[in-house]
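Pilot study result, target chain (220 residues):
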Amino acid sequence: MFDAHRHFGSSMQENALYATSSSDEWDVLSSLKDPALGGVGALADKPLPEINDLERILKAHPSLQIAEVGLDRRFPDIERQEVFLKDTLTLGFELGRSVSLHCVHEQGRMLSTLHSLQPDLPPLIWHGYTGSWETAQEAAKLGVILSYGRKLFLSKLAREGARLVTIPYALETDFEQGDYTQMLWAQVKAFSSLSGCTREELIRNNDEIRTILTHNTATR
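Predicted structure:
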C-alpha cells in the first residue's frame, strides 16, 4: 500500500512518498530504492533555498516529486514563504511534478495562493490535513487531495466520519521513528472504522493516488 507521506528511517525502500523539509536532506534521496518515491522540499524553520536549486535537482532526477513546501505561521517571514510556495507551485506545474503542501494556521492564505495560480496548478496533496470541513471542500474544488494522518483522530474534522471519503483523499503515516509497519496498518484500521471503508478499498485508493501524483506531463 502506498503511504502518502513519511520521513526517512531505517528502511529506504517502502512504497511511500519520502518527504524532506530542508535542502540538507536532499542528498539522502539518492539512497531511496524502488518502490520508494522521493520528495524535494523545504520549510522556513531553516533558510529557504533558491528556486534555481530546487529546479536543478528536479531536472537532474526526473522521478522526484516536491514534498513538502508550504506556509507555517510558527516560522519567520510568512511573505517570503508565500513567494517561495508560489514559485515552487509554478515550477511543479512546468516540470510535471506533484506538490505536497504543508500548512499550519494559514489555511486561508493557502487557499488564496492556490486560487491565484489557477488553472496552472500541479497535482496537489495537502499533507496531514486537520482543518475545517469547509476548507477541505474548497481545497477539493481546486483539485487538492486531502491526506489524513494520525492527528486527524484528535481533530474536529474526525466528526465528519464517512464524509471524509466523499472528496479526493489519501492516508499517510508521517512516519519518523518506531515500528513503521505497525503504524501504517494501525492507521488503515482506525480510518476504516471512522470512514466505513474496507481495508481493501483504502489500499486501492492510496495506490491510485500514487498514480495521480507521479504520472504528469511537463509544460516546458
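One observation from the pilot: The mean pLDDT is 97. A full batch analysis is planned for the follow-on phase.
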